[in-house]
Amino acid sequence: MTLEQQEKYSSFAIRFERDDEAGVWIAVSEKIGLVMEDDSLRGLYF
What we know:
The protein is about 25% helix and about 35% strand. It has two helices and three strands; from the N terminus they run αβββα. Strands 1-2-3 form a three-stranded antiparallel sheet. The mean pLDDT is about 90.
């Protein structure tokens, strides 16, 4: 990874939301292009 890429991704936020209708937790970070879902919040970060 180049220094420019490292600087671009050195800081980012991840938003966690609960979708009660689908029964899942969703994690989203637009800066790094992340979209994940799992039955549990714990499943998103372990």
